[in-house]
Structures are given as C-alpha cells and as structure tokens.
Specification:
There is one protein chain. This protein has 127 residues and is an alpha+beta fold. It has two domains: 62 residues, no CATH class; 56 residues, Orthogonal Bundle (Ribonucleotide Reductase Protein R1, domain 1). The protein contains four helices and three strands. Strands 1-3-2 form a three-stranded mixed sheet, with helices on one face. A hairpin with a 2-residue loop joins strand 2 and strand 3. The chain binds zinc ion. The site of zinc ion has 7 residues, from helix 3.
Length: 127
C-alpha cells in the first residue's frame, strides 16, 4: 500500500479485468474483444484509480496505442533487472545476444524469472 502501480501491456491481455479483480468492483467496462473493431481498444487513456489512501492503480493504454520507441530503455521497466544492469560488460548492452551480460547471467542463476526475461525480449524486439 502507499504505492502507485501501472499496468502496461498489449490491448486485450486483460489489464482492465485484472484491475477490476484487484479493486473487487467493476470500475471499468471490460472490453468484449469479439465486439471490438479492428484497431479499437477499450482503454484509451490512462486512468488513475484510488484503491486506498495513497495507493493507486494506473490503467494505461496498450502498447498498440503508443510508440514503444518513446521508451529509451525497456530494461529499465523491469525493476528487478536494475541491480544487474550495471554489471553488463557493454554499456549499450541490449541483454539479448551479448556475451558477459549480467542480466542473462542472473537469468541463468535463477535470480530473474524466465517469463519476465521472455517478456523483456518480446518488447525489446519490437523496437
Ligand atoms: Zn546485458
């Protein structure tokens, strides 16, 4: 509590549904994908939802509606990567194919979850 969390992801993955579950009330109309026309999505703007004092959830638009290129360093979005990033051999390490990458090392040692790393690769490859 006392935090602000942001859900980010492709439209249709269920961010609004997840938010609704967390809030235990239906605050947003959940999108019915079968009814959504091509290119449309239910979350068109970022909403800040108060769950308790000083605790908010921001529901953001999906990646399809804003440019991933606006994010300089996708790895910085993965907070658990931060403590390893400085140990990468190359300053411009993309943490994907490089040797001596501290992120890949942490992954191999089980310090970073495979699913999180896989998501990172997915996002990084979209740039
Ligand atoms: Zn790296």
């Amino acid at each position: 509590m006392g935090k602000t969390a942001v859900f980010v992801g492709n439209s249709g993955v269920g961010k609004s549904s997840l938010t609704n579950k967390l809030l235990k009330t239906k605050v947003m109309e959940e999108g019915d994908l079968s009814k959504i026309e091509r290119g449309k999505q239910t979350t068109r703007h970022t909403e800040l939802l108060k769950i308790s004092d000083n605790t908010y959830i921001a529901d953001s638009p999906g990646f399809s509606s804003f440019e991933l290129g606006e994010i300089d360093d996708i790895a910085s979005l993965f907070v658990e990567f931060n403590e390893y990033i400085g140990e990468c051999k190359y300053r411009d390490c993309r943490h994907i194919k490089e040797d001596d990458c501290a992120i890949k090392k942490a992954l191999a040692e089980g310090k970073i979850s495979k699913s999180r790393y896989d998501n990172f690769c997915l996002l990084a490859n979209k740039q």
